[in-house]
Each structure stands twice: as C-alpha cells, then as structure tokens.
Amino acid sequence: MPHRRKASPDVSPAVSPVLSPVLSPERLTALAKHALHWSSADTMSIAITHAAIGSARVAQGRVSLTDSGDTLLVAIMTRFGQRVQVNLEGNQVDETTLRRTVEYLDRIAREQPGDPMSLVMPVPPRTYLPNTTWRASTVAAFSGDRHAVLPVLVTPLLEAKFEVSAFAGIALRSRVYADKQGLVAAGEESDTELTVTGWSTDGTQGMPGSGWAGQAAREWTQLDAAHVGREALRLTRLAAHPVALEPGRRTVILGRPAVAQLVRFMSDAFDAQATMLGVTPLYNPVTRKPKLGERVTDPRLTLSSHPNDPDGGILPFDDQAYPIVPRVWIEDGVLKNLAWRVDFAAAMGVTPASNPPESLRLVATPGTRLQTIDEMIAACENGVYVNRLSHLEMLDGRSGLLTGVTSGGCFLVRDGRIEKSVKNLRFHASPWFFLNQLEAVGTSERTAFGYAPWQGPWPIPPTIVPPLMVRDFNFSALADNV
C-alpha cells in the first residue's frame, strides 16, 4: 500500500530551477535501471510513482486543514521463463532496500510452478508524444501560494456575511516504467484547482441556498482567485431563500461544472470488451454489435481526448507504458472509436488503441451556433438552471443511468430570466439520453471539480466541456442537500 511521508531520508530530489517535492523523471529512471541491473530474471518490469499533494481548506471562515505530504509507490514484476510471475508493491527506493527486494523477488520467482499459457511477448517499438503537463509556476506555488490565495477566495463572501468554505490544491506527480526488454517511459505532471462555496440563510426554517465556483488548470498562474470569489458571491446571493419545486421532466440549463461531472461517467462506456459483452450504452442489442458508425449523441457534439490538450492533457503513457494517443471517440454525434485494453486486444488480435479516455474534451462541432449561459436563460421559457451536482452514482451501466443531486446553485428560469432559487433536486438521467435532447451548446472550457470524498481521488483528470441546454431532464424528487 502507498505510504505517506513528509520526506525520504534515503534519496534527495533532483536539483532544478524550482525545487520540486517529487523526484524528477531522470532520478526515477536511474533508480529503475539500477533495479533492473540487479535482477537475474528473464523478465522484469518496474514502475515507480512519486506524488505530492498540497492543499489548504477553509471551513466556517477559518483555515481548518492544511496538508502536505508525498506518496511513493514502487511496483515490480519478475518472471523466469514460463513460470508464474511474481508481483510486489512497496514504498522504498533507497539502494539497499531496493536491491534486497529485487533479489528476494528473483528467489521467489525461481520457485514458481510452470505456466505453459504464459508467454513473454517482445515489446514493439513505442513512440510517445511529448510530456506537456509539467508547469514550473505550479511547482513554485506548492510551498506557499496555495495558502496565500485563500483570503482572496473567501473575503468577498465573508464581507457579505455568508458562511464559506474553500479549497486550494496542488498536485505533483513523477512516474517511470522500465523493463528488461529496454523499454523506458518517464514523465511528470502538475495540476491545481481552486473552489469556494458560500451559504445563505434566510433566518427561518428550511435548507439554506448555496453558490459554488471554481477553476482548474495545469498552470497556477492561469487561475484567477478573485474571479472565483466574485462568481461564488454572485451565485450565493442568487441562491438566497430557495423554494420547493415540483419534480418532473424539465428543460435544464447545465453549467460547465455539472456537465463535466456527468461526462466523466461516459468514459468507461468506450471500453471495447464491456461494450462487446453488451453492458454499456454503446452496444446495439438489435445488431448485437457495438454502435460504431451509428449516431449516439446530438450531431452538434464531438468528444475527443489528447495527451497534449492545451487545456489539460495527461501523461503520454499508461500504467503499462503503452502510448496514449489522440483519439476522437464521437464525431458529429457518431461513434468513431472504442478503447481496446491491452489484454483484451491481444486476445482479439487487435492493436490496442488505449484505455478508456481520462482527459476528455466535449465541444460543439464546427458551424454550430454557440450560446452563453445568459443567452440560454434568455431563450428559456420554463426550465431549471443547474450550476453543479453532487453525490453522483451510476445505477445502470447498460443505459448509463445516473443519479445525484443539484448543488451549489439551482434556479427556476421563467420567461427568459432567473425567477427564484429552488431547493435542491434529485435527478435520474443518462447523458446518453439527454445529449440527444440538445437545445443549445456553448464554448468549451476546463472546469474544476473540487475535493470531495464521494467522487474519488483528487485531482480528477482535466475535463473540458461547454454549458448545455437540454430538454426532458428527469428530476425525480426533492433533496435535502446544500
């Protein structure tokens, strides 16, 4: 299991113009090559990941928690001939411990029984795109700026007498994969995010209204904390005195944070094996085949991923050092590609494209008229504007049905304007359904997710989406959620 440490007494970070709390890819590569040299096994691979997350949080107007530490994970696989492979995970990279670990694995691997089905496949040449996810300004901000930015986030809300919470986080990660067949893949990434939530109370019974705003970027200097604070203040003021609204199918305007949260759940549907087994929305039960070449969303939408996306991107290789390549998953509403995982691709005789996409970009196809949220509101006679969602959960993989609740701003729209704040609503909806009920689409930008235990490890891979207006979005019940 990964182990959290303040610093390693055994190895020193590589010196660079900005001192990083994580080891450089060059240092990790040198350690990995040492480990490979110490092993006498026929086959050995080693993956080392060094990550550091620093965060500062505010609750009830005060800094309640700051957290800074690093996590080191070393994963080694060793095998002799056709014997069963031996795997081990640890958290030490000092030379003595690493060498003893490698020698111990060699000894255990020699004692394994034969596995005639186990084949050591030659590693074909692999070409990786440039690593573009590391920013010096983000590394520099790791030690102090994430704390200094908190007053800028919360002061507008505190001065307006609202309750407030805020989050400023920076994540750094360095990773290398190497094996005895000569393959080496190494890279590093940095990411950062600011979020703030305000609560308004009306002095009577009932749930308070809330407003949420955030930004995320690989580059710390691209974040505008003052803008985030002002936007949270604007939404919190609008959210005052929420009233109950009858659930039902309604036209809904989804802000970018809400769209991003929903689109994240679409990623696993592109898994080729799951789709061919008929357990994703991309399987056609009539033809008994994947819906490749069929329309699966409104033709005004295109979904793609690219490791060098200028607004996000990811490391250009996966956990097994397979290249992450640019991929258009949906083009003009038509399904173009599926993701062939390595093991399934080998069984099917298919060259693997990639795992399901991590960094996602949903955009309007060229020629589509783009609308701002204000323009969508002006064009809406009767609907609901949802800024953000919370506690999302997949209910049915075959249809992509999700449930969750609105959060951080939910408003009734009538006759082209926001009429009032409404209490939060639970929804049951599938993006594969409502993305075929599109009324309007806006410009795409990366959005923040914020830190929340229910949505998994932070940070979530970059997600670039537009605001959307869709019809027949299913609100199923009122929700006691702030």
What report would you give on this structure?
α5 (150-159) packs parallel to α6 (225-238). 46% of the residues are buried. Mean pLDDT is 89; it is low at 1-16. The chain is built from eleven helices and 22 strands. Helices cover 20% and strands 36% of the residues. The protein is of the alpha+beta class. The chain has helices spanning 25-38, 95-110, 136-141, 145-148, 150-159, 225-238, 256-264, 272-276, 342-348, 373-379, 431-434; strands spanning 3-5, 43-59, 62-79, 86-90, 163-179, 184-200, 209-217, 248-254, 283-284, 289-290, 301-305, 327-331, 334-335, 360-364, 382-396, 401-414, 417-421, 425-429, 438-441, 445-446, 463-465, 468-478.
| SSE class | alpha+beta
What general form does the structure show? Answer: globular
- Determine the number of helices (DSSP H or I, runs of at least 4 residues): 11
Rg measurement, Å: 24 Å
Average pLDDT, all residues: 89
Main beta sheet, described?
A: 7 strands, antiparallel
Q: Could you say how many structural domains there are in total?
A: 2
Helical residue percent?
10-25%
| Poorly predicted runs | 1-16
- Percent in strands: 35-45%
Distance between the termini: 35 Å
Number of E-state strands: 22
